[in-house]
Amino acid sequence: MTSLKLVSSNRIFGGDQRVYSHESKELSCEMKFAVFLPPQAQDAEAKLPVLFWLSGLTCTEANFVQKAGGQRTAAELGVIIVCPDTSPRNVNLPGEEDSWDFGSGAGFYVDASEEPWKKHYRMFSYVTRELLELVEANFPCDLERKGVFGHSMGGHGALVCALKNPGLFRSVSTFAAIANPINCPWGQKAFTGYLGANRESWKSWDATELVKTYNGPPLEVFLDQGDADQFLKEQQLLPDNLAGACRAANFPFILRTREGYDHSYFYIASFVEEHIRYHFEKLQ
Q1: How many other C-beta atoms can be found within 10 angstroms of the C-beta atom of residue 145?
Q2: Can you tell me the distance from the alpha carbon of 77 to that of 100, in angstroms, rounded to the nearest whole number?
Q3: Which one of 156, 206, 229, 275 is the catalytic residue?
């Protein structure tokens, strides 16, 4: 069994905000993830619902836990929140640090098929297999009650993790998700590098395409979007494309537009309680 090393632990709202490191088999490097254990986790008999938060470009395991303020609601409801990093770290690949939207801090939650990325850049399998197993083995969670949510690149990741693994997550929500990556500059750059030039193969990593063929237990997609988001204007996010695909496929969805809100954690902090409560209800 993979051993965890405790990096830090801070008491907050009666629970514990921790960071752990471990040697990842999927990514072939040392990784960190954060986990919030609410006060209810101190009960030896506890089996709590768990949410996985996937962060966006340039982020680490720290952004959500330091900026979103979700611990208060999670402590009230008794929800564990797990926050992985956004890419492998310190694997010394050529070009890994050349740009902010590809490579380090920008794993895009896919399993790369192209050299030199395919050995390490396997964030999809890391999140949906290895991290799940670590969480189940080490924390008092009920993995029959798990949801996934995320921001921007992590919103794309949350959607893909839920849609490509029917039944693995019972709830999914996003903030300012990259909802149709095959048709936006960020996604096209990342997918070309990680997945190669065959654009047809990209569709299996795009939520707007995946809802068209989803075959699994009932699932609803909760999309949250600020209308003052600069990347919405730059056509990086394309939530209407996903909403349209959901309508055409009769796939249940919510698209909530927030007037005056941008792409930042100020926006996320304003509505994170609503999202955690949404997941909590779905996981009962």
Answers
A1: 21
A2: 36
A3: 229
Phi, psi angles (nearest 5°) of residue 243:
-60, -40
> Phi, psi at residue 184, to the nearest 5°?
-130, 155
189-224: buried (b, 16+ CB within 10 Å) or exposed (e) per residue?
A: bbbebbbeeeeeebeebbbbbbbeebeeeebebbbb
Q: What is the pLDDT of residue 1?
A: 57
User: Which of the following is catalytic: 24, 87, 104, 152?
Assistant: 152
Q: Which residues of the chain register pLDDT less than 70?
A: 1
Q: Is 55 tagged catalytic?
A: no
CA distance 202 to 93: 23
pTM above 0.85, yes or no: yes
Instruction: Considering the candidates 151, 156, 263, 275, report the single residue annotated as catalytic.
Output: 263
275 counts as catalytic = no
Among candidates 217, 193, 218, which has minimal Cα distance to 205?
Answer: 193
116 preceded by a cis bond (ω within 30 of 0): yes
Rounded to whole angstroms, the Cα distance separating 174 from 61 reads 17
pLDDT, residue 223, reads 98
Say how many CA atoms lie within 13 Å of 199 toward its Cβ.
8
Distances (CA, A) of 2 to 25, 85, 194, 204, 249: 9, 17, 27, 30, 41
* Known catalytic membership, residue 98: no
- Please tell me whether residue 27 adopts helix, strand or coil conformation: coil
Helix extents (H) in the chain: 63-67, 71-77, 123-125, 132-138, 153-163, 185-195, 199-202, 207-210, 230-233, 239-249, 265-282
pLDDT in tens, 146-172: 999 999 999 999 999 999 999 999 999
Residue 225, helix vs strand vs coil? strand
Q: Supply the pLDDT for residue 2.
A: 73
pLDDT at 210: 98
Query: In the numeric block, which tokens belong to residue 112?
Result: 């790369």
